[in-house]
UniProtKB/TrEMBL annotation:
The lineage of its organism: Bacteria, Bacillati, Actinomycetota, Actinomycetes, Micrococcales. Transmembrane segments: none annotated. Residues 7-160 form the Oxo-4-hydroxy-4-carboxy-5-ureidoimidazoline decarboxylase domain. GO terms for biological process: purine nucleobase metabolic process; urate catabolic process. Gene3D superfamilies: Oxo-4-hydroxy-4-carboxy-5-ureidoimidazoline decarboxylase (1.10.3330.10). This is 2-oxo-4-hydroxy-4-carboxy-5-ureidoimidazoline decarboxylase. Keywords: Decarboxylase, Lyase, Purine metabolism. It comes from the Bacteria. Pathway: Purine metabolism; urate degradation; (S)-allantoin from urate: step 3/3. It catalyses: 5-hydroxy-2-oxo-4-ureido-2,5-dihydro-1H-imidazole-5-carboxylate + H(+) = (S)-allantoin + CO2. It comes from Brevibacterium marinum.
Amino acid sequence: MDLNEFNSLSTDEARELLRPCLDVDRWIDGVVAARPFSTVDSALTSGHSSANPLTDEEISTAMSHHPRIGEKAKGSSAEAAHSSREQAGLGVLEGNVQDRLAAGNAAYEERFDRVFLIRAAGRDPEEILGELERRMANTERQELAEVGEQLIQIATLRLEGILA
């Protein structure tokens, strides 16, 4: 879809298209209301700023659609397709990396009671593991802020993919 097509969608059609990017009504409403966009960059800027920062409740809602890093998303939803594409860059994880990621995911989930979320696109497994280890030292409030920023980055990348 190109930018002109996106700009010409009805409000309901645009909302439906955006929901798999980030299932947060405030974000969706902000991006839809900011149309028409003159450039893809202006759409992405809107995508980054429309709900930044996310509330705790918005983060919780949006997190329900994200699999563990290193695990294949289940189902055939648009969210699962986005996730599979985003994690494809990790390639086949070797045993040691897979084991470290599984252990890190488990420790993170025990500490923060949610899956570890990071924008996987453009990152290699070692960088992701380094970020997981670094973020384990965060307070709950710091980590929620980081999760919210990661959700916004993922949403913006997904929006870019739609408009490419």
